[in-house]
Amino acid sequence: LYPDAINHTTSCGYPIHFAITGIMYRNNPAGSAEIVEFLLNCDPHLKFVKVDGFSLLDFACNLAYNDSNIEAGIQVAKGIYDAYPEAIGANNIASNIHRYHQQVQA
Predict the structure, then answer these.
(1) d(CA 21, CA 32)
(2) pLDDT (tens digit, 9 = 90+) per residue, 24-49?
(3) pTM for the model
């Protein structure tokens, strides 16, 4: 493993962004939640990273979940929130909470 690699970025984000997006494509979406938790525990500064102005929590909440991966999506959002509760006030999370709620209810 290359521990410093968790802080390397591409135009699409950091490895944690790929782990979050992996929820949409993995046969076992819960595995993505475990990877996100692992990465957050590896580097306490990782919770502050943004891509295109989106915090990790905003990024995770903007994915289009379905019945097969919504539980993993909620687990990821909870893990990010637990690591950085202040993210709820950042960006558009508070103003879009109704839309996120509708997405979970759908």
Answers:
(1) 8
(2) 998 999 999 999 999 999 988 889 99
(3) 0.77
Q: Which residue reads 């939640």 in tokens?
A: 33
Distance CA 40, CA 63 (A): 19
Boundaries of domain holding 20:
3-105
| DSSP result, the chain | --GGGGG--BTTB-HHHHHHHGGGT-SSHHHHHHHHHHHHHH-TTGGG--BTTB-HHHHHHTS---TTTHHHHHHHHHHHHHH-GGGGGSTTTTTTHHHHHHHHH-
Total domain count for the chain? Answer: 1
d(CA 104, CA 67): 9
